[in-house]
Hints:
The chain is an alpha+beta fold. It has helices spanning 4-24, 63-69, 75-82, 106-125, 170-176, and strands at residues 29-30, 41-45, 48-51, 54-55, 84-85, 89-93, 96-100, 131-136, 142-147, 153-157, 163-167, 178-179.
Amino acid sequence: MNHPVTEALWLFSQQYIAAWQSRHGSLPESDLYEGLASPCVVKETDRGVQWQPVKRNDHADLSKIEAGMEIRLCEEAHAYFSSQFSGDMSARLDDLRFELVQVWNDDDFVRLQENLIGHLVTQRRRKLNPTLFIGTTDAELEVISLSNLTGEVILETLGTDKHTVLAPSLAEFLSLIKPDLDEQASFTA
C-alpha cells in the first residue's frame, strides 16, 4: 500500500532500527517475543528475540471492525495497522514518551482488532467520539490515539473526552516522533 502513513511508519521504523543498532550494536531485541512466530524474527539469542520490521505482502485491513461496529474507519487507520509486521517501538514527541503499538503476526492482528472493538464499544457507550489507539504511555489511563472523525493524533484520557492534539494527521505525527532508547524509559523494546 502506497500511502503517506505507510511511508512515514516505514521511515520511523528504519530510524528506530538505526538508533538501536547505534546504541546496542544489534537489531532490536526483546524477551517479550520469545516463542512467538513472526516474519520479524531474525534470530533468537540468550537474551530474547532479535527482530526487524517487515512490510506486509498480503492484504490486511480493519474491515471486520467496520462490520462489527457498523462504522467506517479512516483510511489512515487501515494504512497504519496493515502495512507491516513489527515489534512495538519506543518513541517520544518532545517530553512525551510512549510505545507505538505494532502488529507482530497474524494472531496479534486478530487480538488488536478485538482490543480496538472493545475500545470503540466503550466509547460508544459513553457517547464519546471514536478513536483508535496507536500508542501506550506510562500513564495507565492515557493513550496515543487517532481520531476517526478528524484524523488528528491525540493524547487521550481513556473514558473521557479529555484530550490534547499532538498532530493534525498520522503521517505528520510519525514524521515528528523520534526513537526513544533511553535506558531509564519504562518501556522496553
